[in-house]
Amino acid sequence: MKKVINTLFIGFLYFIPLQAQGDKEIVRKEIIAVVDNFFTAMHNGDTMAMKLLMSNTAMLKTVDKGRTVSTPYNTFLMSIAMKRPNVWLEKLYNYEIKIDGDMATAWTEYSFFLDGKLSHCGVNHFVITKEKDLGLRILMIIDTRRNTGCLTEESRQSIEKTAIDSMLNKWHRAATTADEAVFFDSSMTKDGIYLGTDITERWYRDELKSWAKSAFEKEVAWAFSPSQRQIYFNENDTKIAWFEETLDTWMGPCRGSGVLMKVNGSWKIKHYNLAVAVANNVIEKYLKIIGKKKKKK
């Protein structure tokens, strides 16, 4: 069933023009999808799916220790189809996409694991073209191989934590400087949700933008200063993370938490929840203010 699903999805890519009305963000996603599906098919030994992704004249080359080694297309597919004694896993850590007309390139850092142990690492360079009546096809793959300076899950998470910290700090700073473009467009997904401290405050990104329009017309929209932050990662999906943070605000101490998604190589806020932190020693006063009685134990 998995092979059928992969084949159908890859078939869908036939109908996506490489330069669709100049929308390079959409095209970029489709180029990344080609690369991701190539490795999914490789890990599954699904040569039928791989053929739908590759040109019949595809070239495969490896640059290693001053030598360039070429692997014939059919030889490569046979090696994928053969029953392997080891479990292969090639992890990609980033994508650099460039597009011009009907040609695109994808540059990805990778680490290759055999039975869960690091074997080697390097860079993949994909050349992808839009072939007439066929759709997006991989024309060439060139990779490098080395055994030093390899990314691992631990080092990747360290790099990603730094990127997430920087993004969230810029997001809060954008509110302080009333930078609407950075706060909304650059830092939140289009379908991102923001939960405010009031029970009625639940907005999608653009709804929040409309609600906060007058605030962002001032020199300072609002000023929240993060003091502590923890970041967590999904083990099965490197494009999902979540976090919690402590904030100093005009309302007193608050706690923010949220879900992040990596979109086109950049982390963005998918969901954010802002909550006022009420200290235990004043909770009874708080209950009186909101008209609630403390429940008896």
Please, could you describe this protein's structure?
The chain is α+β, with helices and mostly antiparallel strands. The chain has two domains: 2-144, Nuclear Transport Factor 2, Chain: A; 153-281, Nuclear Transport Factor 2, Chain: A (Roll), CATH 3.10.450. Helices cover 33% and strands 39% of the residues. It has nine helices and 13 strands. A hairpin with a 2-residue loop joins β12 and β13 (266-276). The model is unreliable at 1-17 (pLDDT under 50).
Tell me briefly what this model is.
With 297 residues, this protein is α+β, with helices and mostly antiparallel strands.
SSE inventory with pairings:
Blueprint: H1 2-12, H2 24-44, H3 47-53, E1 54-64, E2 67-71, H4 73-81, E3 88-92, E4 96-100, E5 103-114, E6 117-131, E7 135-144, H5 153-176, H6 180-186, E8 188-195, E9 202-204, H7 205-211, H8 213-216, E10 225-233, E11 240-249, E12 252-263, E13 266-276, H9 283-289
Parallel strand pairs: 1-7, 8-13
Antiparallel strand pairs: 1-2, 3-5, 4-5, 5-6, 6-7, 8-9, 10-11, 11-12, 12-13
Helix pairs in contact: 1-3, 2-3, 5-6
| Number of strand segments | 13
Report the order of strands and helices: HHHEEHEEEEEHHEEHHEEEEH
**What oligomerization state is this entry in?**
single chain
The profile of the biggest β sheet is: 7 strands, mixed
Q: Any idea of the CATH class of the largest domain?
A: Alpha Beta
Q: Give the rounded overall mean pLDDT.
A: 88
Give the number of helices.
9
- Kindly name the structural category: alpha+beta
Strand content: 35-45%
Distance between termini?
54 Å
Q: What is the helical fraction, as a range of percent?
A: 25-40%
**CATH architectural arrangement of the largest domain:** Roll
